[in-house]
């Protein structure tokens, strides 16, 4: 069998890309290890960040939206995965202090070029987004989860997933109503990832 011989320039570019990926991985891992145990301000626990990261990689998502940036922990996990799929994250935060801290964290970890961090009220920002999206992570006001889903559902691609945090938390506001609604939809498959115990609902669009 004759083997295809790649031009030297192609091999060189592949080697450079692999080295770049490895360097970014090391940078992100070092940053997350340094910050371990310091993610307050309504950030997700590490276990849940890993779940989001793995979902993006598993499905090869490239067009992600996060509602509720906080100071950037979940955004880092999502954008880290997107750096492997060639994707991009839009994330929305209403509080200027948390937004500014998140942007500084994204810059320090080397992922800012993958992230469009927007400061604003998601109630107004989200409906105005053009989309389409293939991955959404909602971690803002729980009583608005259902409305966020309704605003974004037409912009979610087939095979895309809408995820939401804190759906197993007792007294979680409108999270229970949201989960009941998405579970009732025949064109969605919804599962709950327990993760840290807070619960992440994963609703994937079948058609």
CA-atom Rg in angstroms: 18 Å
CATH homologous group name? Vaccinia Virus protein VP39
Strand runs, count:
7
Shape: globular
Q: What is the chains' assembly state? A: single chain
Strand content: 15-25%
3D architecture notes:
Helix content is 45%, strand content 21%. The protein is α/β, with parallel strands linked by helices and 207 residues long. The chain is globular, with a radius of gyration of 18 Å. Strand 6 and strand 7 (200-205) form a beta hairpin. The model is unreliable at 9-17 (pLDDT under 50). Helix 1 runs antiparallel to helix 3 and helix 2 packs parallel to helix 3. It has one domain (8-205): Rossmann fold.
Q: Can you give me a brief rundown of this structure?
A:
This protein is of the alpha/beta class and 207 residues long. The chain has one domain: Vaccinia Virus protein VP39 (Rossmann fold, 3-Layer(aba) Sandwich).
Can you tag this structure with a few keywords?
alpha/beta, seven-stranded mixed β-sheet, single chain, 207 residues, 45% helix, Rossmann fold
């Amino acid at each position: 069998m004759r083997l295809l011989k790649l031009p030297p320039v192609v091999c060189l570019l592949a080697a450079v890309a692999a080295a770049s990926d490895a360097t970014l991985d090391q940078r992100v891992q070092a940053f997350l290890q340094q910050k371990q145990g310091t993610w307050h301000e309504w950030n997700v626990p590490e276990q849940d960040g890993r779940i989001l990261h793995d979902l993006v990689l598993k499905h090869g998502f490239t067009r992600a939206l996060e509602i509720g940036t906080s100071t950037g922990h979940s955004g880092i996990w999502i954008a880290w995965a997107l750096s492997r799929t060639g994707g991009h994250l839009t994330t929305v935060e209403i509080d200027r202090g948390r937004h500014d801290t998140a942007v500084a964290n994204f810059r320090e970890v080397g992922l800012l070029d993958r992230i469009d961090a927007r400061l604003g009220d998601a109630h107004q920002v989200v409906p105005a987004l053009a989309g389409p999206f293939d991955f959404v992570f909602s971690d803002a006001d729980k009583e608005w989860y259902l409305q966020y889903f309704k605003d974004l559902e037409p912009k979610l691609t087939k095979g895309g997933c809408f995820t939401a945090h804190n759906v197993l938390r007792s007294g979680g506001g409108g999270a229970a109503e949201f989960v009941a609604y998405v579970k009732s939809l025949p064109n969605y498959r919804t599962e709950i990832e327990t993760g840290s115990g807070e619960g992440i609902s994963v609703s994937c669009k079948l058609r």
